[in-house]
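Section 3.1 - Work completed
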Amino acid sequence: MESRLTDPSPKVENTLILAGYIKEKIHAGQIEVLQDSVQQLEIYFNQIKQLNIIEKLTVLVSLISYFRKIKNYDKCAGYARQAVSLSRHANNVNILQFADIYFDYSDVEYDYGQYGHARILLAQLLQKLEVNNCNDNFVYGRLYLNLGKINLAEENYEAGVGQLESALDLLKETASSNDPIVIKTVDLLVAALIKMEKYEKGIELYTQMLNELHQEREKELEVKTLLNISEIYYHIDLLKAKKVVEQALELMQHQDNNHDVKLRALMMLAEIEEHTGNLQGAVSLYKRSLDHLEDLSNPMSAILYSKIGILLSKINEFKQGKMYLKQALNHASIIEPMKSKIYFVLGKIYTAEKRFNKANEYFQYLLDEIITNNKGNKSRKFGHILQMMAYNYLAENNNEKALASFYKSLKVFGEIQTLSDLDKGLICKLNIL
């Protein structure tokens, strides 16, 4: 696509075409093809004297969007400052363009944790809107949404919720429930209410949205909203959470849902079954979840393999459990602490199978990892692993190594003042004296 712009002279027309091309590619998520185009646009922007203010702002908006996507704060903020400065001196920038520029800049500052400056920019925008007698509720809705986000980021939930409620009221005067900005506002508002443990209020908001989406025949969004409701119930009523997920799965049978939505629903249901003690049912659902991963190199597959393996070990299906755990370990995306958890479970499995040397190989790996990651500091977990290794040595009648491990465990626990004598391993020690 870049070869279409071969005119070596930096003309205004080509500059605007290039700016539009960059914005189009950003919208399509094709950031990786834009490096050369962006460099060329920067050259044009700095060299062309014929660009008027509106044209300069058009270029700057594309540059801000690109550098925000690649997380180059310095360039992004620099271009945003230029855009704000230009817009202040432009007589022919309409108020909506002016608002977009301020929203872009405040978003940049928000992304990089500069909440105070982001708030100042929004306050300046509000003043400009009022001076110009702007009565666009959608713009005011966006402004209150951004102010609410800042307050939530600063953990000022009461103020954040109030601003998000105002934003939602304003946005819904001009936008429908399926508009992405309305959905985003509701999601942020409910997340804040959950933080405040106002679960019923969150359910009420999503239920209202669900009814509106049903009237608009937005089936896929209905499913997602049902899953959101289930996630809230997960905090207060697992049976209701299960019922709502099953309702979402039933709705999915009558439509073509993407695999990600189906995967989310199945994993939620699996987790509920796991926490209500139906481990076999949870294993079955996690296995079904694997079927909805279009690419097994997806990091989620490592999580699913490990979950299935751990649950199978809990119901004494050791052979299958080991198979899934080793698949997880062999996955390219396996990371700590998942890896350590798998090694711990494999150690317990081999202990149950009376393969004590093999079990202690995994436990030794865990001890080495704890020493490395904690810079030599020991922990309660370290002590418990030593006790399990001691048990394995004892089972092999290697009392010398067993006693050494128990003493090491006792030393670790002795440095943790809050533990009981049992935790400190005294009982284990006495059993072999």
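Second construct:
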Amino acid sequence: MNKIEMEVTVYNVRLEVTGIYHPEESRVLYDDNMEGYPGAAAEFELESVQLEGIDITELIAGDVIDLIVEQVIMKHE
């Protein structure tokens, strides 16, 4: 788990985002019968979105939040 601040571009607009990034967790098999931990995909918990220093988090639509999260995860893979 890492708290990160980074810049992303959505619809040609540069945004500064802050949040907590959880890296991907690998699958772990404990024995031959395939039991174990199935792993987990990377996740990003968005805390804030700023445009030119102004917090616009509450104004961002859900589909734009999804695009932001995708970009952050792709940049950290």
